Here is the input.
Amino acid sequence: MQKSEHRAGLYERWLLPRLLDLVMRNKEAIRYRRKTIPGARGRVLELGAGSGLNLPFYGREVTRLYALDPSEALLRMARKKRPPVGIPVEFLEASAEAIPLESRSVDTVVSTWTLCTVPDAAKALREARRVLKPGGWLLFTEHGHAPDASVESWQRRLNPLWRRIAGGCNLDRRIDRLIRDAGFEVLDLENEYLKGPRPFTYTYSGRARPA
Ligand SMILES: C[S@@+](CC[C@H](N)C(=O)[O-])C[C@H]1O[C@@H](n2cnc3c(N)ncnc32)[C@H](O)[C@@H]1O
Here is the structure.
């Protein structure tokens, strides 16, 4: 193995999971976790559960939680955390583009700051729609494409470098469009810039259901 490949491997397998865990604990993220996660009900699938930072926010209405993420290192961190109310949690080391659950088997799909990173977000959302029961909910808080021309142009400029250092994260995905194109009806949608540099913080948060 080349030295540079070894360094890239170490960065992605060791340093990046720890950086993500640290960065995603910020106050603004916590504010949105508090708003988004308590809406989950019944059998819940979380896409890109990462290091488990949403786990403390699930409530008693959840009967089972599937925490899915392709990163073994992040899931190892997540396993050390527990929801406060004794919900059974099953950790799935898998990709959101191929969800290992039956069709129409979950009541809520949750996605927070994940659709930016999944390589094929459209496919992941079609999979989310497949596993949702009719009448189920997709609860999302994501960052993405900003409406202001100057911010958008910075997003386009920064994206290639950012994607490389941030584990494949894209700054400029049109989250609402992706959700609608996958066959969802968006019922609530809130957009705002969170505190911090604007190309990184334009937020899409809301609820959608299979159309
Ligand atoms: C910025 S982190 C967010 C983690 C977590 N959702 C949170 O709110 O803190 C992006 C997450 O997307 C996950 N991810 C990357 N590719 C994925 C895929 N194909 N399917 C599901 N999750 C994926 C990463 O492993 C990581 O946990």
Observations:
- Residues 3-23 form the longest helix (21 residues).
- The chain has a mean pLDDT of 95.
